[in-house]
Amino acid sequence: MTGETDAQLVARVRRGDRAAAGALAERYLRACRAVALAVTGDPSDADDVCQDAFVSAMERIDACRQPERFGAWLMQIARNHARDHLRASRPVLSIDRMEIASARASPAVEAERRDEQARLLEALKELPEQRREVLLLHDLEGWTHREIAERLGLPPGTVRSHLHHARRRVRDLLPELEEETDG
Amino acid sequence: MDERRLDLSALDPARDAGRWRAVMDSTLARVDDVLLHRRQDPLALIAGWRRPLLAAAAAAVVVLVPVELLLERREARVETVRGLVAVSTAWAQEGRAPTGAELLRAMDTGSAP
Question: I want to staple A45 with a disulfide (CB 3.0 to 4.6 A). Which of A40, A155, B77, B94 is the partner?
Fold first, then answer.
């Protein structure tokens, strides 16, 4: 991954630099998906929404007033797109799921994974949207408390509190869920 | 505080690496179209330069305004001296000494009484 700052990459994107856009996608597309997943609760929708949100951000890159805070700006765009998607209740420009070639596990393993994912998504639905967002960004995407606070515009104490309550609630709902020691 | 990280790997997009790669590729292909348009659009090019240009203009104003004021003040002093020389010559030709009021007026306006 490039060592350039967000502001430097944004400046290059403004000049039409594809590689810079690719670096921003590598840096933020997964987080964008996590935010979209927190809103829609559906991984496939989240894939579509994060894609649309990122393309939209590239189209409106001149409107990014604080390029050093590109991440926060993109997360807001992703959130808005996801909410619009929910309101419209129609698929956005969809990836043809049938044409995607991927290494599939055996049907039994695949079914187990789907079941595990479904139970997790059901548990996440019990959380307020912002707590879901914080939990996914921290425990799935590996963002630090500080990164989440900066990019979501929340006080660090609030981030810690959201994370604590979210984890506790999910554990209550899914006691079988494996745990990892926080790094 | 609950410091134990939850295992959310069931939601990890990289679990289906092929699908996630497709999402990434599809995103970048669409971004490519956007950026191609941007590279060809002179207005976008200007927009990209707008902020640095505005910053440079602001810096130029900050530097040039005090310089201009200094030059104006020096010019005014030269005018005063020229005026005093002119009126002093006139008084010498008339063979008389100026009054205090005439001197003050000459210094103030830089012109002959």
Answer: A40
